[in-house]
Amino acid sequence: MLLSKAMLSLVAGVLYLGQVDAFWRLPCTGRAGVARMDPLVNHGSLSDHAHVVHGGSGFSMTSDANDLLKSDCTSCAVKQDKSAYWTPALYFQSSDGKTTLVNQVGGMLAYYLFGEGYGANPKAFPNGFKMLAGDKTLRNFTWPVPDPPKSDWHGDETSQFALSQKALGFNCLDYTPGKTPEPSLFRHFMPEKSFLDANCKNGLRLELMFPSCWNGNDLDSPNHKSHMAYPSLVNTGDCPPGFGTRLVSLFYETIWDTYAFRGQSGQFILSSGDTTGYGYHGDFIAAWEDNFLQKAVDTCTNPSGKVEDCPLFNLQSESQQGTCKFNLPDAISKEDTKGPRNGLPGSGPGEGNVVSSFVAAASSSIAPATDARFLKAAVSAESSPPPPMSLQPTTSSTLSTLTSVSLASIQTATTLIPSTLSAPPTSSAPTSTEPASTHPPIISTIYSTKGNEVWEIFVEEQTVTVTMSMTATQTSTVSPQKRALHHLQRHAHAHGRAHRH
User: Fold this and answer.
1) Which is it for the CA torsion 344, 346, 347, 349, positive or negative?
2) In terms of Cα–Cα distance, which of 121, 85, 38, 86 is closest to 288?
3) CB under 8 Å to 222, separation ≥6 — which residues?
4) What whole-number distance in Å separates Cα of residue 131 and Cα of residue 227?
5) Is 450 exposed, middle or buried, given 0-12, 13-18 or 19+ CB atoms closer than 10 A?
6) What is residue 123's DSSP assignment?
7) Is 177 helix (H, G, I), strand (E, B) or coil?
8) Which of 2, 5, 66, 414 gets the most CB atoms within 10 Å of its CB?
9) Could you tell me how far CA 145 lies from the centroid of its own chain?
């Protein structure tokens, strides 16, 4: 049965999925450590920023698969897996300059995706395999926001650089009954703190899709990337020439309790000094017991996605996962990675000064795109012209032009399109009128999880007319930057069927 609900410019149909593709989500509820260590990028030396690390206790500044396989334990649920999974840590920096490590909620989830849509007969990672996704130096996003429908991607939008940027996700979580969850990989930047405070009661989920197309030869490459490529649609699609071997698709999810800092003056920052989120990244070293992962891929195909439903896995409890830690080298054994502390780890006295101070890092960062860029609104030509932007508005649908108004007075009626600006709106939402029409075509499909259920959401675009009454004394208070809104075709960018469990 197709259920629909008018939501400003969207109608969403929700359908429960009974049969899904093969995958499992590997819980890593324990954290093996937080440290400035990265055996891929900074092999044998200290990293310039702290990472949260999950997996085998053999993790070190020089560890490889052989070292990890000798681990005494793992902070993940499956004992046969001693792989290492790591990403930058997330910090809150208060107005006095002190930084505090944000708490993780439930550790990390690593999704292993290998069903239909993820390539024909994807192979398991060979032991010794390593890869890196993302680029810590990036501070901007030059592609349309939000993502247009994948069927409209063309030219540079399908380049490996573009696909790698679209492989990042910052998912606002609010489990309030009746709230429609944001799809995965929907937003590719860190939302402003005011938006997080107002909308994300259950935290911020950071997401990272790794490339899955392999050259079939190299377990690693000098930059830890060039032996791999993304398929044409980030998580699904076709592999480019030279990368014809499809591996299991790997997807990281980490939930951070940003709501714990609600109402406090400051901002969130990745340990690499990035306040935009565009530089989010992650690393992986495969270290499963010999031939076990391929056997699991061939056998563990229960559509629930639960590791408990695969008889091959030897599982351990959350408390056991939480006791597994790696040893810190003497150089950073006393380094404070939790805070509150001055600056980020690596920037303090006696820490090598390998990281710029927070103030320097933040001042050099390009501010992330405001969530107002997701508003489906157009500003009157009477207002000041917007600055040049890289966005390319679509022309497949229309929206009536609004009288020049303060954008702070505009709210959307859907949770799928975040709408706050630098501060939460203070006025009520304008009345929206949806024209009568026949059932419009579906332009996108979203897969989303609620508990152990997975829902398929069909997104349809409609023409919407918004009218507002103004008094003669009202004036516009919108800055040119806030006026730079484009009417973009709505696309909910999900990571394939990773959440269909």
Assistant:
1) positive
2) 85
3) none
4) 8
5) middle
6) B
7) coil
8) 414
9) 15
DSSP character string of 248-309: PEEEEEEEE-GGGGTT-SEEEEETTS-SSSTT-EEEEE--BSTTHHHHHHHH---TT-BGGG
DSSP state of 145: S
- The more confident residue out of 424 and 196 is 196
**CA of 179: how far to CAs of 199, 310, 448, in Å?**
11, 32, 12
CB 317: neighbour CB atoms within 10 A? 11
Of the candidate ranges 122-136, 171-185, 191-205, 364-378, the one whose mean pLDDT is the lowest: 364-378
Nearest CA among 449, 423, 493 for reference residue 237: 493
Q: Which of helix, strand or coil describes residue 340?
A: coil
Distance from C-alpha of 345 to C-alpha of 303, rounded to nearest angstrom = 41
pTM for the structure as a whole: 0.71
The structure tokens listed for 11 are 């109608």
* Residue 222, CB-side half-sphere exposure with 13 Å CA sphere: 0
Tokens 């003669």 -> residue: 472
The pLDDT of residue 393 is: 29
36-84 confidence digits (pLDDT tens)? 999 999 999 999 999 999 999 999 999 999 999 999 999 999 999 999 9
Per residue in 303-356, pLDDT (tens digit) is 999 999 999 999 999 999 999 999 999 999 999 999 999 999 998 776 754 444
Q: Are 23 and 48 in contact (CB under 8 A)?
A: no
